[in-house]
Batch of 2 targets.
Target 1
Amino acid sequence: MDDADREAARRELVDALRRRLDVDERTLAAIEAVPRHAFVPEGRRSRAYADRPLPIGHDQTISAPHMVAVMTDLLDVEPGDRVFEIGTGCGYHAAVVAEIVGPGNVYSVEYEPDLAGSARERLRRLGYDVTVCAGDGRTAFSDEAPFDAAYLTCAPTDGVPDQIVDRVRTGGRVVAPVGRAGTQRLVRLTIEEEGVDREDHGGVRFVPMR
Ligand code: SAH
C-alpha cells in the first residue's frame, strides 16, 4: 500500500462512518486527517483502515475508528478547548481530538511507560503538539485543571473516579466506558452547578482501567 492507497482507504472508511453514524462533519474531518496506519504496529498497517480495534502491544488495543468517532463527537469540543485524555495507548485518539482543539490543548496520561514514550515520540514526529505523561489518570495533570472536557479509553469498574470528574469545569463533559468486562456502558457526564448529569450511550468493550 502506498500513500495514495492509504488516503483512498481512509476516505472510504470515513464515507462508511458518515453513512452509519450520526456524527458531526468536524469529527469525520478529524478522522480523515489522521494517518491511522502510522499509529499501529508495522505488521498491522494493511488493516489500519478497517473499522476494527487492533492490538498495540502490552495487551492493549487501539479502539475501532467508529468508537473514536462516537466518543470524540460526544466530547463536543471546539477549537481552543483543553482536553484531558486518560489512556494514551498509541496516541491515535489524542491525535483525532487534537485535530479539532488545536496544538497544545490535549493532555494525555498513559499508565504503561513504554507506550507513553512511544506515543509521545510518534505524535511529535507526526506534528501533533500533545502533552503525554506516564502515570495514573487519577493523579496526572492536576496542575493543568480545569479542563473543558475529559475522556477515558480504559474502563473504571465503579464509575469515573471523582479525581477525574473534579478536574473538569462546570459545563464541561466526561466521556467514559464504565463497568466490568461484559457489562460496560459508554457514558457521558455533564458537570453542572447542581451536580452531574449522566447519559447512557450503549454497551461497549474497553480494556480495564488499572
Ligand atoms: N486511546 C488509545 C487507546 C488506548 S487503550 C489509542 O488511541 O490507542 C487504553 C489505555 O489505557 C491502555 O494503553 C492502558 O495502559 C491505559 N490505562 C489503563 N489504566 C490507566 C490509568 N489508570 N491511567 C492511565 N492510563 C491507563
Target 2
Amino acid sequence: MTASSEYRDFVRQIVEDDLASGKWGGRVHTRFPPEPNGYLHIGHAKSICLNFGIAKEYGGKCNLRFDDTNPEKEDVEYVDSIMEDVRWLGFDWEDRLFYASDYFEQLYQWAELLIRREKAYVCSLSLEEIRSGRGTPSEPGTDSPWRSRSVDENLDLFRRMRAGEFPEGAHVLRARIDMAHKHMLLRDPIMYRIRYAEHHRTGNKWCIYPTYDYTHGQSDSLEQITHSICTLEFENHRPLYDWYCEALGIHHPQQIEFNRLNLTYTMMSKRRLLLLVQEGFVSGWDDPRMPTICGLRRRGYTPESIRAFVAYVGVTKNNATMDMVVLENHLREDLNRNAARRMAVLNPLKVVITNYPEDQCDELDAINNPENPAAGSRKVPFSRELFIEQEDFMEDPPKKFFRLGPGREVRLRWAYFITCTEVIKDSSGKIVEIRCTYDPATKGGDAPDGRKVKATLHWVSARHTVKADVRLYDHLFVREDPDEVADPALDWKSNLNPASLQVVTGAMLEPSLASAVVGDRFQFERLGYFCVDRETTADRLVFNRSVTLKDAWAKEQAKG
Ligand code: ATP
Ligand code: MG
C-alpha cells in the first residue's frame, strides 16, 4: 500500500476507501479491456499503467481482456501486438488472459433469462426506425410495435436468430427499459444484432453478436472485477452497465471514469491511425512518427520513460491535451541518465590537419556518460583527416557564430584545439575541405596555458568511420490540433506534415558504433538521442532520432 502522505488521484482514493470499508472483502481486481481492432497507442498506455499499476500497488490483480465483439474489424494480428506491447510496458496478466468471445454462450443464456423476465424482446424494426424512434434528449422516444411480444414468441425468434434463419437487419434483441428514460442509452438499447461475419476466435459459430454495452459489464462481472476503470466517454453508459448487472442479479463492479490522454501534434483514434497506415502516409503501425506503443518503441522510447510520463500526467475528470514536449522530456531525462554518448557527423565536411603526420593515429579517451561514472570510457581514434558537421563551419561568420571559421580556434571534443588555416572550394565555389593545424599540447581538450575557445565540436576520424542512414523526425501534423483546419473543405489529413521524415544517407559515425544492435540507444553529442532501427542489416546501419537534446522552444529561449 502507498505511504499515507502521498498524493492519490481520485481513482486510487476510491480504491483505498473501498479497502478501508471492506466493500469488496479486501479485494482489488481491475482489467485492461482493449478491442483488438488496431495497435495500442500512448493513450492506452495510460489505461494500462492505471489498471495494472493499481493492482500492483494494492496487492490486487489485473486481467487482460480482449473486448472482441465486433468480428468485422478485429484480427489476431492486433491481439498479438497488444500482448507484446503490454508486456513491453512492464506489466503481467499472469494466467488471466480473457476474451469477451469466451463469454458468448453465457451472454446468450443471460439474454434468454432477460427475455423470460420480460426485460428483453425481439424487435423487428429496421435500424433506421429504431434510431428515429429513440427520440431526442428533450423528447421521449416511442415504443416499438414489437415491445409487447410474448415471452414464448421472443424466445422462439431469438433462438431462430441464433440458428441463422433470418437475414442481417431482420431483427435485433433489445432490452425493455423505458422509451422515455432521461438517459438516451437506456431507451430500449440493442443487445444483439445479426451478423454473418467470421470471428477471429469463434469462426462461424455465431451469427448474432452482442453489443459492447451488453457485453462489457457482464464480462467484468464474470471475472469478479471490483473497479471497472474506463475513460470519460463511457460515463453516460454507466446507468446501462448498472442496469444489466442489476437485471441479471450478478456481481456488480463499480465503473469509474477518468480523462483520456490527448497529445498535441498527433491523434489517438485507432480508426484514423489505421487510415494513415492503409493510405501509406506512414510506413506502418510501427512507423516512428506514430503515437502507437510499437512506433514509440521503434523511435527509441523506453518503457520507463512512458511509465514516468503517464505517472506525471495523472488521472482526473477533465479532458485536456498534453503538450508533446512533456512526453519528449521524459524520454530525454531517462536517456540523459542511461544512454551512452557517441560522436556522429550527419553532414560531413572534410578537415585535414596539416601538421598531423599521415601515418599516425591517436587513441583518445572519451567518457561514455558524464551522468553515470559506471558507464566508463572508450577510445576514439584521431587522425590527419577528420569530418566535422558542415554547419559548424562558416567562411564569413556572423557575430553570434562562435564555431569554426578562418583563423579561429575551437576544441574538438575529447581531442585537441584546432585552428582553421585554409578553405578549399570546388569550381562552383562550394566548400569541399578545410585545412587546420592542431596544438599537440591540448590533448584531451585543455590548453596548459589556460587559453579558452568558444566552441567544442564533435567529429570523427575519416578513415575509421562507420556509415549509417539516419532518420530525423518532426511532428506528424503541422498543427497542435490536427482537427483544426483553415478551410472547412479540408480535413485533418490536410494537416499532415510533409516534412515529418528526413533521411540522411551517408552519416559518418565513430567506429565503436559498428557493433551497435537493433534497439540500442545513444546520445550523439550535440545532435540528440538515437536508436538503432530494426531495418539495420549486416552492411547498413539505420538510426532513428528519438528526440533532440532540447526541445525547439527551450532552444529559442536559450538563444534569448
Ligand atoms: P479508439 O477510440 O482509438 O478506437 P478505444 O477507446 O475504442 O480507442 P479500446 O481498445 O476500447 O480503444 O481501449 C481500451 C481501453 O483503453 C479502454 O478502457 C479505453 O477507455 C482506454 N483508452 C483508449 N484510449 C485512451 C486514451 N486516449 N487515454 C486513456 N485511456 C484510453
Ligand atoms: Mg473502445
